[in-house]
Structure formats: structure tokens, C-alpha cells
Design a protein that fits this description.
- Its main location: membrane.
- Required for disulfide bond formation in some periplasmic proteins. Acts by oxidizing the DsbA protein.
- The protein has one domain (about 5-165): Up-down Bundle (Bromodomain-like).
- The protein is about 75% helix and about 0% strand.
- The protein contains seven helices and two strands, in the order ααααααββα.
- It has a two-stranded antiparallel ribbon.
- A hairpin with a 2-residue loop joins strand 1 (about 135) and strand 2 (about 135-140).
């Protein structure tokens, strides 16, 4: 199996595991996702779908691989920005945390989708609450780490020939 196909498949599987963990945390542990968490999930799903399509398509040329890798990098950058925003909200002193807002379900019922996205991007007090950590790192910290890994894997895929030529 070609390296690019294996790497895209690995990214897809990692995204599937991240979503399984997110659903476990929500439905078994009872940790309800905030609006920024929901947007990060969309980014993880987007990365996973693009990576799966790339693995299934298995483009032979450099152009196809570059397009898929570029899309994964863009989605990873968006996800990393969302995770960074949430980490910033979590770092605020208690008196500067925005007020808690209504649930995502209510927002989707009461507002147009673009308004819901804008509200979610601003973040709420729910987004600033640290409800779970592993090794001292909160959920958006681990999500940021995953997005950085996905982007690095794709950068490696794009430039591996140049790296091999220089050695």
C-alpha cells in the first residue's frame, strides 16, 4: 500500500476514534458539548471524511494527493483555531468569562444557522468550563494536539519527496 493511502487511512481512523471518544464522553460520562465543542466535532468529521475519500480514491498523481492533503490541512487549521479559542476562554479569569448561553438544540430551533455559528464562534461560559482533563490537559487541548498532528502528517506527505531529495 502506498504511503499516502496509508497516511490518509490512519488520519481517518484517528478521526473515527476521536468521534467515538466524544460520543462516549457525551452519552456515557454525561459531558454535554458546548457550542465550540460541536464546531470542533464538525472539523474532526470533515478531516475524517476528506481523509477517507483520499484513501478510497488513492490518487496516483501528486496533484490529487496535494488537493486532499491541502483540504485536510485547511480543515485542521479551522479545527485548531476553534480549539485555541476554547482554550483561551478556559484561561480567562472567572470575572472575564462570558455568560453561559442556551443549549445548541435551542439555538438551532430559534435562530438561522449562520446566527448559530456566529454565537458558537464567540463562545459562552459553557465553553470556558473545564469538565475533564487527562494528564492535566483539557478536551480542547487534546483536540488541538490532534489537529496539529493531522496537519503535520499532511505537510510531511506534501514535502516528503523534497525531504528525501535533500538527504
Amino acid at each position: 500500500m502506498r504511503l499516502s493511502r496509508s497516511l490518509f487511512l490512519l488520519v481517518f481512523l484517528a478521526c473515527a476514534v476521536l468521534m467515538a471518544i466524544a460520543l462516549f464522553m457525551e452519552h456515557v460520562m454525561g459531558l454535554l458539548p458546548c457550542p465550540l465543542c460541536m464546531l470542533q466535532r464538525v472539523a474532526v468529521i470533515g478531516v475524517g471524511v476528506v481523509a477517507l475519500l483520499a484513501a478510497l480514491h488513492n490518487p496516483a498523481g501528486r496533484t490529487g494527493t496535494s488537493i486532499y492533503a491541502g483540504l485536510v490541512i485547511l480543515l485542521s487549521a479551522a479545527g485548531a483555531a476553534l480549539a485555541s479559542r476554547q482554550l483561551w476562554l478556559q484561561s480567562l479569569p472567572a470575572d472575564q468569562v462570558p455568560a453561559c448561553g442556551p443549549s445548541v438544540d435551542y439555538l438551532l430551533e430559534a435562530f438561522p444557522l449562520m446566527d448559530v455559528i456566529m454565537i458558537a464562534l464567540q463562545g459562552t461560559g459553557d465553553c470556558a468550563k473545564v469538565s475533564w482533563t487527562f494528564l492535566g490537559i483539557s478536551i480542547p487541548g487534546w483536540t488541538l494536539f490532534a489537529f496539529i498532528l493531522f496537519a503535520c502528517a499532511m505537510v510531511y506527505l506534501l514535502f516528503r519527496r523534497l525531504l528525501a531529495a535533500n538527504q
